[in-house]
Amino acid sequence: MEQPADQGNKERVLAYYTGFGEREWSRLDREPLEFTVNMHYLKQYLPSAGKVLDNGAGPGKYAMALAAEGYELTLTDLTPALVELAEAKAEELKLTERFTGGFHVRDACELAPLADNSYDAALLMGPLYHLQHAEDRAKAIRELHRVVKPGGIVFVAFRSRVNQVMNALLNPEHWKPLHRLDAIEAFAADGIFDHTDEGRYTGAYFYELEAIRPFMEAHGFQTLELIGSTNMGAVLGAEHWRYWSEQGEETYQQLVQLLIRMARESSVLGMSSHLLYIGRRV
Question: What is the pLDDT of residue 132?
């Protein structure tokens, strides 16, 4: 049964990301497929210009890329240290003037004082990973709907439950308590994950693939696409990437383009570690 929302998980998430800092900024450099695939589809669906909200932006990797493309950005995140880092990165990259809406510490479930119908597009690329309670997930999507203009485009990231079961089966000691089959069975039923080891990725919620479209559509969005940001790349280990990179740059880029195309393949969506919902506000 879904428990009522509480402050405890928010505090754990804040503690986790406060200690992440530069590692969170560089994560998408160390694991570039997710960013590369997502940016491909962002560019495909974004309007040619306009105001974009990056809600739950962390240190702002996507926001900086979109600012460099000429969009007007507003950045929000729950973690003050990451908002500070994002401001510093914008200054370092000489992009501060593109952040016309500023940098804000905000809970994705409560975006006030951001005004209704303010943005041509919005990203929600992290907060739903950690909202373990249904009422909080609904609040975050209602707030997204509120601040985006009618007809505006949204990009919402989800974590895949099937992929996490696969991760636990492949690397059980890395995902305690999912090193026991009874715990894996419980997780497969409710999607709630709390790491046994202190300081690890925790306070998380993983989605059933079939639930994503109905969830978004029930909150006022028309589905355009659901893609697998890492799709088949989620099961490629370092040795696999090394093999293909050693075939030369042209072959490596062919692989990347293949995975960009495979992101749309419905038969492999569940195996993707991250899923990207693309929708239009009705």
Answer: 96
Name the DSSP class of 136.
H
| pTM of the shown model | 0.94
Domain assignment of residue 147, yes or no: yes
Listed in sequence order, the DSSP H helices in the chain are 7-18, 22-30, 32-45, 61-68, 80-92, 134-147, 161-170, 181-190, 209-218, 238-245, 249-262
Residue 69 shares a structural domain with residue 187: no
Total domains in the chain come to 2
Say what the pLDDT of residue 6 is: 60
Looking from the CA of 219 toward its CB, the CA atoms found within 13 Å total: 21
Residue 168, in any domain of the structure: yes
* 1 domain residue, yes or no: no
Q: Is 97 domain-assigned?
A: yes
Tell me 3's DSSP state. Answer: P
Low-confidence residues of the chain, pLDDT below 50? Answer: 1-4
User: CB-side exposure of 35: number of CA atoms within 13 Å?
Assistant: 16
Residues 168 and 187 grouped into a single domain: yes
Rounded to whole angstroms, the Cα distance separating 108 from 77 reads 7
Do 148 and 121 form a contact (C-beta atoms < 8 A)?
yes
Question: Could you tell me the residue range of the domain that residue 63 belongs to?
Answer: 7-160+207-232+261-281
Looking at the structure, do residues 69 and 128 belong to the same domain, yes or no?
yes
Instruction: Classify residue 264 as exposed, middle or buried by CB count within 10 Å of its CB (0-12, 13-18, 19+).
Output: middle
Whether residue 131 sits in one domain with residue 77: yes
SS3 of 124, please?
strand
Shared domain check, 175 and 101:
no
| 119 neighbors 148 (Cβ within 8 angstroms) | yes
Cα–Cα distance between 35 and 31 in angstroms, integer? 8
pLDDT at position 10 is 86
